[in-house]
Fold this sequence. Notes:
The chain has one helix spanning about 1-10; strands at about 35-40, 45, 50-55, 65-70, 85, 90-95, 105-110, 125-130, 140-145, 155-160, 170-175, 180-190, 200-205, 205-210, 215-220, 225-235, 240-250. By secondary structure, the protein is mainly beta. A hairpin with a 2-residue loop joins β5 (about 85) and β6 (about 90-95). The longest helix has 9 residues, at about 1-10.
Amino acid sequence: MLRKQKFLAVFCLSWAAVCSTSAHAGIVTQHAPVLGAAPVANTITKSIPTSAAVLIGDANLGGPDDFLLTYDKAGINHAGGIQTSPVGDATKLTVSLSSMNTGWYASHWNVQSADGHMAGGDDGLWWAFGVKAKTPTAKSVKITLNSSVPVAPLPDALSVTLNGCRVGMRTLTTSITSARVTSFRFLRTNDTPDSLRNASFTWPVSYNKKTKMYSSTGIIPFAGAYTVTAQITSTNAGVTRTALWSSDVIIAN
């Protein structure tokens, strides 16, 4: 237990909100809870990392199809062989990192659960981070997200503001009174490079009661075409409804 607590403290486990299990499969699906990762998701390291790790809140994980890979913008993997080790009642996946330079990166992982399913779902899970990187300046843009399936009484569209369609640390903001925004996801839709196909980055959401604005900050590590999706929930007369609103956006370097 002490080893697990030390791991949690060292890596400042703020990642749980980023990869929390969603009530709707359209955002995130997973079988085991993620307790933390290093480098921490949606942060910029001040030094060159030499390893990457993810801690999953389930014991006895591991199988022949496990992986933990760390990619740069060209889709090149910088991770070495994966090591799976127990940490109390959790499991830690660790890889060494090499040839890391200043820039934006994303790690992609999955591990077999005790029940035989993959803990990160069919496609695995991603998190993004920067290495001594600086976010380029860019103009804010308004994006209209549309609901693929109308869910009454939720509106059919949601207007959000993204503070720049370029890679780096970005923030989405929006205001809605009839529902609650629970998460945003950026899904990369380019076919190349193959290693970055369907890379998906889910951001946590906060709400400011004074401004009545929802805000979500995270890293978009790679240029390309993305589908940005907001998950919205509304409770009325004891019934909770969930809707997904989405739109396409092009992210430049």
